[in-house]
Design goal:
With about 140 residues, the protein is mainly alpha-helical. The protein is built from 6 helices and 4 strands, in the order αβααβαβααβ. Helices cover about 45% and strands about 5% of the residues. The strands form 2 sheets. It has a two-stranded parallel sheet with strand order 1-2.
């Protein structure tokens, strides 16, 4: 079996970034085996009143892996993503997704907004995107 070098998420950011010790403690308290779920990351962002983007940067600087994307796009075992295409798209949801596209893609934040607006799960929105062949981009935590 070949040796794989461990990914260093911190390399995505300038080395001059400083980690807030309080946020660091929250992240390490909630993470397990240097992994943290998307849900936990968003909860910390809300509790500490900071943006998910800044939580994502801090998670990267601490070299903690983000798992269990709430859209089902990454961080699940064994197949990495748990997302399956919807078998049928709700026409109203499809229209909302189409209207929210930028350069043919739907941002994570817009997917979340559509989920709230239609009172459906985030997975329903991403499954509909998968059904329609639409890629989701711009993770709010910066994972993709």
């Amino acid at each position: 079996m070949a040796f794989q070098k461990e990914k260093k998420y911190s390399e995505k950011h300038q080395q001059t970034k400083i980690v807030d010790p309080e946020i660091k403690n929250h992240i390490f308290h909630r993470s397990k085996d240097r992994k943290m779920s998307c849900t936990d990351a968003f909860e910390i962002a809300g509790e500490q009143n900071i943006s998910p983007h800044n939580i994502g940067i801090t998670i990267d600087l601490l070299n903690v892996k983000i798992t269990k994307c709430q859209l089902g796009l990454f961080g699940y075992k064994p197949k990495k993503k748990m997302l399956k295409p919807a078998s049928l798209a709700d026409p109203n949801l499809e229209d909302a997704i189409s209207e929210a596209l930028v350069e043919g893609k739907l941002s994570c934040k817009r997917a979340w907004n559509i989920s709230s607006r239609f009172n459906v799960s985030k997975i329903t929105v991403s499954s509909t995107c998968e059904f329609l062949g639409i890629k989701i981009n711009d993770c709010q935590l910066g994972a993709f």
